[in-house]
Amino acid sequence: MRVRRLGELEAEIMDRVWLWERPVSVREVVDDINRRRKVAYTTVMTVADILYRKGWLSREKSGRAWMYEAVRSREEYTAALMQDALGDSQDRRAALLRFVEVMSHEDVEALDEALRAARPGRPAGEAGRGR
Amino acid sequence: MNHHVLPPLALALITGLAVPWLLVRARWAQQVPRLGLAVWMLCGAAFALSIAVLPAQLLLPEETSHRLVDLLLTLHAPSPGRLAAGTGREYLAAAAAFAVLALPGAGFVREVVRARRARSRHAGLLRLVGRYDARLGATVLEDARPAVYCLPGRSRRVVVSSGAVAVLTEQELAAALAHERAHIGGRHHLLVAAAGAFSAVFGRVPLARIGGRTVPLLLEMAADDRALRGCSRDALATALYALAAGRAPRRAFAAGGPSAAVRMRRILAPQRAGHPVLRGLFAVATAVAAIAPAVVACCWTG
C-alpha cells in the first residue's frame, strides 16, 4: 500500500513540476498538495529525491533548499510510450499486447474492403461518421 | 543404437512437422482458437519431451530404454529406490535429457524476464504521464494518434490514447477495451513468450516457425471472441478498422498487418463451425492414433 501511495505522490509531484514550467521547491509542492489532502513535508522531500535519483528531476541549490525541474517534458515521455504502443520500436518482442499491429497501406485497404463487404449500403468505417 | 529411439523420434516428427502442417491449414483452429491454442501447446510440450528423450534412448542400454518408453507411455514415475540405484550411464542419459529440456525452458524464462522488464519500465513512465480514467477502467495517454493496448502481468493495465477515445464511439471503445482485458485475464503474454522462446530455440522446425506466428494470431482471435460476448460484431470490427486506418502506415513493419484482415473477416462473417470441438478432438485423436502403432510395434513385440 505504501509503495502505491509513493507512486501516486511521484505523479502528483511531476504534475506540478510540468504544470508550473519553472524550478520549484519542495515547500511549494507541499503547500499545493495540502490544499486537497494532508501530506508531510519530509515525505514529499523523500519522493522528490527518489525522482531525482531516477533521473526524472534535476535540481539546483538555491539558498538552503533544492529547486527541482523536470529533465524531460511530459510530451517527450508520452512520445516514448506511444512508440512502444504503436510498435514503432525495433524490438518486436511482445512486451505489450496491441489491439492492432502496425500495418501497410494495402492492408488497411483490405480491412476497409472487408468492412464494406460486410455491410452493403453503408459507407465503411470512418466515412460513416463524417471523418 | 537400438530401435527404442523410434517412439520419441516418431513423436518428434509428428508434433514437429505433421501436426503443425495440418494445424495451420485447419479451419477449425481459427473457428475455435482456444482449442487450436491448446493443440499448439500440447504439440510444443510433446515435441520438447520427445527430443529430450531421444539422446537418452541413444545412451541407454536396450533393456533400460525399453522400460523408459514404458514408463513415459504409462506415466509411471520410477520408484525412488530405482532412481538411487541408477548406473553412471543412466545418470548421463538423464542429464542429456534435462539438458535438452533446459533449452526451451531457459528460452521461456529469458523471454518472460525481458518482457517483464520492458513492461515495468513502461509502467513506471505510464504512472507519471498517464491519467487513470475510472469510468473507462483504463489509463489515458494524451496523444492524438489512436492506440489501444495492454500491459499484462504484474503491472497489468489497459491503456488508450486520447486519440483513440476521440476516434472511437463508446461501443467501439468498449469493444476494444474488452479485447484487451481478455488478453490480461487469459494471461496471453505467457503463451506469446512460450511461442517466442520456441521459435528462438527451434527456429527451423515447422512447429516453431509456424507456431511462432500462428499462436499470437490465435490469441488475438481468442480475445476477439471473448470481447464479442459483450459487444456487437460491428463495434469490434469498426474499432479494428478505425485504429488501423487512423495511424501512419509503415512499410517496414507490414508483417503485422494481414492478421488484422483475417481477424476482421472472421469477426464480421463467422463461418458455421459445424462441430468444431469434435473436429478438434478428432485431430488430436488422429495424432495420438498415429503414434500408437509405432509404440506397440516397438514395445509389445520388442
TrEMBL record, chain A:
* Annotated InterPro entries: BlaI_family, WH-like_DNA-bd_sf, WH_DNA-bd_sf
Q: Which Pfam families match?
A: Penicillinase_R (PF03965)
Q: Note whether DNA-binding occurs among the keywords.
A: yes
GO BP annotations, alphabetical order: negative regulation of DNA-templated transcription
Gene Ontology molecular function, alphabetical? DNA binding
Q: Which UniProt keywords apply?
A: DNA-binding, Transcription, Transcription regulation
Q: Family assignment?
A: Belongs to the BlaI transcriptional regulatory family.
Its name, as the record gives it, is Transcriptional regulator BlaI
Output the lineage of the source organism.
Bacteria, Bacillati, Actinomycetota, Actinomycetes, Kitasatosporales
From TrEMBL, chain B:
Coiled-coil regions, chain positions: none
Alphabetized Gene3D superfamilies for the sequence = Metalloproteases ('zincins'), catalytic domain
Give a GO biological-process term: proteolysis
Bound cofactor: record note: Binds 1 zinc ion per subunit.
Q: Does the keyword Zinc apply?
A: yes
The Swiss-Prot or TrEMBL record annotates one GO molecular function as: metalloendopeptidase activity
Task: Give the matching InterPro entries.
Answer: Beta-lactam_resp_regulator, Peptidase_M48
Swiss-Prot/TrEMBL keywords: Hydrolase, Metalloprotease, Protease, Zinc
What cofactor does this chain's UniProt record say it requires?
Answer: Zn(2+)
The keyword Iron-sulfur appears for this protein: no
Q: Which family does it belong to?
A: Belongs to the peptidase M48 family.
What is the official name of this protein in its record? Answer: Peptidase family M48
